[in-house]
Design a protein that fits this description.
4-stranded antiparallel β-sheet, 4 strands, about 60% helix, rod-shaped
Length: about 170
């Protein structure tokens, strides 16, 4: 019992740019599954990028065309790699922007808190100035009262030393 599953070239699609230079190629293959010469499955597979190494070519595809297509495939792979790199860098930029926005928000919060604390400090400084003025006034009152007490004590001592005329 001979079972065979083979893929053979079916169709080639080559795209050219406006200058006539090949810019991409795909190949479709035909899959044939046979058993003892009887075809069990015959299907056309999805197109895939053309790998030129080892691919049978005709007189239509010259060595120069093959080299150009190989170069196009290499360049397309590099473009895909660069697109991935760009996508990664875009994600990094997005994260950096998010962190900047968080920092800016924190900065605004700190600025508001600083303004509030500056206002409280000014109020406290005004209170300290007012209280110092009140303390100075109270000290003056205390000194005046101490002088009156001293005068009264002096007067009381003087009257105690003078005999009374009774």
């Amino acid at each position: 019992m001979a079972f065979e599953d083979k893929k053979i070239p079916y169709e080639i699609l080559i795209r050219f740019d406006d200058n006539g230079t090949p810019k991409g190629a795909h190949v479709q293959k035909r899959r044939l599954v046979t058993m003892d010469g009887e075809i069990l499955k015959d299907e056309i597979l999805s197109a895939e990028p053309l790998a030129l190494e080892g691919f049978p070519t005709s007189g239509l595809m010259t060595s120069a065309t093959q080299a150009a297509l190989a170069s196009v495939n290499t360049l397309n792979a590099q473009i895909d790699q660069m697109a991935d790199t760009i996508e990664g860098k875009d994600a990094e930029i997005t994260e950096a922007n998010r962190q900047r926005d968080v920092a800016a928000s924190a900065g605004a919060t700190l600025t508001a808190a600083n303004a509030q604390l500056s206002q409280q400090l000014a109020t406290y400084q005004d209170d300290v100035t007012r209280l110092n003025s009140e303390v100075a006034t109270q000290k003056g009152t205390i000194m005046a009262l101490q002088a009156q007490i001293a005068a009264m004590q002096s007067s009381a001592s003087a009257s105690a030393e003078t005999p009374s005329a009774e």
